[in-house]
Specification:
This is Nuclear pore protein. 65% of the residues lie in helices and 0% in strands. By secondary structure, the protein is mainly alpha-helical. Among the domains are: 165-352, no CATH class; 628-752. α7 (165-191) crosses α9 (204-215) and α20 runs antiparallel to α21.
Length: 753
């Protein structure tokens, strides 16, 4: 036992380490993508803006949009949406608009812990569009959405106690097939009312018998219609009635027939246990059913034995759940199932939980038929086998979903770029599966997906879909999808209430902050997330980061990232919102220092930017005066940054005077600078004033000295004061030889001596 425990612990550690590694890889990839994105924004922000009229050709841009894998293909702005009625828009845009409203409602419900059935809501949204449900195909997207609703148990039909999440999905798939068969039964009865002879009866059993009258019309009088059984022996339909009741989802009626009929008296308790346990019968019951199958197969078909007695063998095979019996039944009767739905219902009804690994070798005849067996069988065939070479494109993802290969089905649909917009459905199916936290159960046999991989894959699909809205300026909708992308890696619905495990909560928080940071960087992002004022309590950010300290820390981190990426305006605005005035002033001083250096080197953008930066700095200082609850440390830092701002203003004024040709005035201002020892009227003394300057001022000093020397060359020295200023500059350079200033500055000083 100690060795087994040690192995189990090692396996748990390995799994945890693998999940941590995969999450780290995902985060690194995301950081690289975000860094590239922010750098591209920084480059774009330096380009001149050009007004593009709505009628201008956008052929190249539209070509790029059409090539996006997860493109919802919605219109690019509110004006174009309003100008085109919904009825006249393409199917893809209709779906995107309808599904988008559902996502909003889903997020709102999850925030408030209200009940919400997303799959059903998406199905109703699709139905409200009035699209052609099937278009001549056997499987339409509405049918797939109904299957999604059944898989998630939103109709409560698949709810069973004491079964695993995977088996709950299996039961949901089976119930969907039963719903479909019920529709088929009703359509058959309506198409043959005379043969059905339903009369005024509306019970489930009466419907099945009406259906059998049509189906078995060539076999003679059926037992439930016989008036005098002695004159003409009727056809016994006991097993047919039980089978079709089960196939249509009428479980109570199937049990009732089994209990009342003499032919199925021994089968009744087995069926009762199968129904009450959700298919998870005991090993003893499975063994009894398997033995009965063996007896029937040994006897073989007798002469004159009715064909429909095969239903008895089929029902016992289902109860047995034996892989051997199921494989033999399919081999013996390959043509019994007329549709793939009938075949899959039979297989899903027989599926059992995978046996727990142990040292005990199971009897080959009692080995259960598992979901892995079903998936392995279905995956032997290429997708074209199911879609009839593309003529019925949704059959393959439909089969994948029915066999609980959830993520492969979503990935298959997400690659579709046709006019029907199945890639739009795929993104919203990923939202549903992630919300219910079932992705780890439906990765599919043989697929290279771990639990974390499945969540990350679904999150990526949702995020890429939301990023399309972001690129088209619809930040509000992008936010709704980004929130779902973060919830996907956090465990879905559980992550909203904090009931997920610690790793999932950490992953959700990390991704949510990354995505919100991306939104903030866009034009209008601050207004949407933070509102007209404050740190988000009046905007959308307060919905997802409810704690004020958490919001402030997030905004400070975002401002730091924007500053590193060169998005200084964003950084300054956010720092002002959180009351980080010293940090905002430091950013302004850095930008002002860079602008002064650019101005000194003759770049045109330096002069146009400096006035705006000084104005922003003065506004921040004015806000600082009236801001409540300023700490002593912050107050001290703001005053220090104010000094730096004034020093940079003084340097800027000297550059402007020199450019205007006012050389004498510029020289006078240089001599007045209190932070440099250049006043000819003061005695020389050794000091480290330069080292005490802010770095933002230090980088401006070499260009300032060049300007001063240039002005000295253009002014006549009448009283020797200019000579003294040259000496001051030379001494200042001599005292700071370790600064590695430009060589031409030293040469210029040497020529003036």
């Amino acid at each position: 036992m100690a060795m087994v425990s040690a192995v189990q612990e090692a396996q748990k550690d390995n799994l945890k380490n693998f999940n941590d590694y995969m999450m780290k890889v995902l985060e690194n990839d995301w950081k690289k993508e975000k860094r590239d994105f922010l750098q591209s924004l920084s480059r774009i922000s330096t380009l001149p803006r050009t007004n593009i009229s709505e009628s201008s050709p956008l052929g190249g841009r539209q070509g790029q949009i059409a090539s996006l894998t997860y493109s919802p293909q919605i219109s690019s702005g509110p004006a174009s949406v309003e100008s085109v009625p919904l009825a006249n828009r393409p199917i893809v845009e209709k779906k995107a608009a309808a599904y988008g409203e559902v996502v909003k409602n889903l997020n709102s419900a999850r925030e408030r812990s209200f009940p919400f059935k997303p799959a059903t809501a998406f199905k109703h949204a699709l139905e409200s569009l009035g699209l052609n449900a099937y278009g001549g195909k056997s499987v339409g997207i509405q049918k797939i959405w109904h299957l999604m609703s059944a898989l998630m148990g939103e109709d409560h039909s698949a709810f069973q106690h004491n079964i695993s999440k995977k088996m709950s999905l299996v039961i949901g798939a089976r119930r969907h097939l039963e719903w479909g068969h019920e529709k088929y039964v009703m359509e058959t009865i309506q198409a043959h009312p005379a043969q059905a002879a339903l009369g005024g009866a509306v019970g489930n059993l009466q419907r099945i018998r009406a259906f059998l009258r049509i189906r078995l019309r060539d076999y003679g009088v059926l037992d439930f219609d016989a008036v005098d059984a002695r004159r003409q022996p009727p056809v016994d339909t006991t097993w047919q009635q039980i089978y079709f009741c089960l196939r249509t989802g009428y479980y109570n009626e199937a049990r009732e027939i089994a209990q009342l009929s003499r032919m199925s008296h021994q089968f009744a308790p087995l069926l009762t246990e199968w129904i009450s346990s959700g298919g998870m019968v005991s090993a003893e019951t499975a063994a009894v059913a398997s033995e009965e199958c063996e007896k029937m197969l040994r006897l073989g078909d007798r002469a004159g034995r009715p064909m429909y007695d095969k239903k008895k063998l089929l029902l016992y095979t289902i109860i047995s759940g034996s892989r051997r019996q199921i494989d033999r039944f399919v081999r013996e009767f390959p043509t019994l199932f007329s549709t793939i739905e009938d075949f899959l219902w039979f297989k899903l009804s027989a599926v059992r939980e995978s046996p727990v690994r142990s040292s005990v070798v199971l009897n080959e005849g009692l080995a259960p038929y598992t979901l892995d067996d079903l998936q392995a069988y279905l995956n032997k065939f290429e997708p074209s086998h199911y879609t009839k070479n593309g003529k019925d494109p949704l059959v393959y993802p439909y089969v994948l979903l029915l066999s609980i290969q959830l993520l492969p089905a979503v990935l298959y649909l997400s690659k579709d770029m046709g006019d029907e917009g199945y890639n739009v459905d795929a993104a919203h199916m990923a939202i549903v599966l992630a919300d219910y936290g079932v992705l780890s159960e439906g990765t599919g046999l043989g697929q290279k997906f771990g639990a974390m991989d499945a969540f990350a894959e679904a999150s990526s699909i949702i995020r890429q879909y939301g990023s399309f809205y972001l690129r088209h300026g619809d930040l509000a909708m992008a936010l709704e999808y980004y929130v779902q992308a973060a919830a996907a890696v956090g465990g879905g619905q559980l992550s909203w209430s904090g009931r997920g495990n610690m790793d999932q909560q950490r992953q959700r928080s990390s991704m949510l902050k990354q995505l919100l940071t991306e939104l903030l960087s866009r034009d209008g992002g601050i207004d949407i997330l933070l509102g007209p004022r404050g740190t988000g309590e009046e905007g959308q950010l307060g919905r997802f980061l409810t704690d004020e300290k958490t919001r402030q820390q997030f905004l400070l981190d975002a401002a730091r990232q924007y500053q590193d990426a060169g998005l200084y305006d964003k950084s300054i605005e956010i720092q002002k919102r959180v009351g980080a005035f010293s940090a905002a002033l430091d950013t302004i001083n850095k930008c002002l220092s860079d602008a002064i250096c650019a101005l000194a080197r003759g770049r045109l953008d330096g002069d146009s930017r400096t006035s705006g930066l000084i104005l922003s700095g003065n506004e921040i200082l004015e806000m600082f005066k009236y801001y409540p609850d300023i700490s002593p440390q912050e107050r001290e830092n703001v005053l220090a940054q104010q000094i730096v701002l004034r020093q940079l203003e003084a340097v800027l004024s000297i550059h402007k005077l020199a450019r205007l040709g006012n050389h004498l005035d510029a020289i006078k201002e240089v001599a007045k600078l209190p932070f440099l020892p250049l006043d000819p009227r003061t005695p020389d003394f050794a000091t480290d004033v330069f080292k005490n300057l802010s770095h933002h001022v230090q980088v401006c000093v070499p260009d300032l000295l060049k300007v001063a020397l240039h002005c000295l060359e253009n002014v006549r020295d009448t009283d020797g004061s200019l000579r003294s200023l040259r000496d001051k500059i030379a001494n200042f350079l001599a005292n700071n030889m370790n600064q590695n200033w430009p060589r031409d500055l030293y040469e210029k000083v040497a020529r003036t001596l």
